[in-house]
Amino acid sequence: MHQVHYATLNGYQDPELNNALHAVLSPCLEKAGGVQGKRVMIKPNFLEWKGHDKPVCVAPELLTALCRYLFDGGASAVAVIENPAVKSAPVIVENMGIADELAKLGVHVANCENYQFVDMPEKCAFRRLELAQEYLDYDLVIDFAKAKTHAMMTLTLAVKNLFGLIRGSERLGWHLAVGRDYGRFADMLLDINTLVAPHISLVDAVVAMEGNGPGSGTPVDLNFIAASNDALALDASVANKMGVDDLLLISRAAARGMDVEFVDCGEIPEVHPVVLPDPPQMGLEWGVYFPPRLREFLRRKMVAKPEVAPDRCIGCGMCVKMCPPQSLKLVNGKPVFKLGDCIRCFCCQEHCPVGAIISKKTAFMRFADKFEKFIRKIIR
Predict the structure, then answer these.
(1) What pLDDT score does 300 carry?
(2) Least confident of 17-21, 29-33, 75-79, 372-376
(3) Apex CA 41: angle with CA 133 and CA 66, to 5°?
(4) Over 90: is that where the pLDDT of 8 sits?
(5) Is there a contact between 344 and 258 (Cβ–Cβ < 8 Å)?
(6) Would the pLDDT of 57 be above 80?
(7) Cα–Cα distance between 368 and 98 in angstroms, integer?
(8) CATH topology of domain 292-379
(9) Fold of 2-266
(10) Which residues have a Cβ under 8 Å from the Cβ of 363 and sit 6 or more positions away?
(11) How many C-beta neighbours within 10 Å does residue 16 have?
(12) Identical topology for domains 2-266 and 292-379
């Protein structure tokens, strides 16, 4: 059974920050064979830096402390390598205000550049993926994720963070390829995790994101960091602490026979249910046969849609640029959706710099919610 290690951290200026990192990382490093003399790659969540009051990326204080901790432990080299959606990794580090400090430590900061097609193992759902290969050049790979809500996958944690190893343009293509089949998307994430198999996964949940995540939600203090040698076990445990016990990624993994069992260790936090975005899809698999046309009709009616808040929109066009099926365009400086072509990947919502796009339930979904609550009252 995989161990998930927790430590309490009351903010990023907490004098116990280094001790907290040691508490969660030392048992993981011991299991991974230590760090002495090893070249270490950190793959952080660098969606976009929006400031200290917007928990979009891993905290710069934690990232710097992690790099220093690895060098103090004897690492021969430490690299921070990521493939952000818009800006480069070096630019984001500069915006965070830690570029000089990382340079003094000797940390190499770079974008993923070496992409190659990889034949996946037989147990994977996808046969071939194009992935960044930089992780193969390092002795120890650390997957450093931010705890956030996600309009498509409910939460984005360690396994979802590895999606950043796919080329930016290809990420749009995969959203388009899987369409509204979020289980299929979860399968792809699981396949990437199976192949890369990071030695250690670390989650920053000191200040997490709830609501309209992963790019425009609101901060929520969960006050913990967590680490494990198994990314999937870490996600299952942290999701539980965020009040999510039915994460699609975990149920999909269990259905595929993957080990999702875990035991929590250390300063285990209380469960703190976070505010979730409207679910993108309500289940249709009730064991009842639906004719294809009725099934597609129900899928359209029971899948949340992206909606623009005109008072927030600045007309930058980022949503148009990031839309895989090009199902929206700017009209008089505001995005207009062609929902018939929208695949509900919520790339527009994820990359909106001002949080002007939200995931909203359809009228049919709202009715179904009320009807379910009514039925539950009757049969309680």
Answers:
(1) 62
(2) 372-376
(3) 160
(4) yes
(5) no
(6) yes
(7) 48
(8) Alpha-Beta Plaits (3.30.70)
(9) Rossmann fold (3.40.50)
(10) none
(11) 13
(12) no
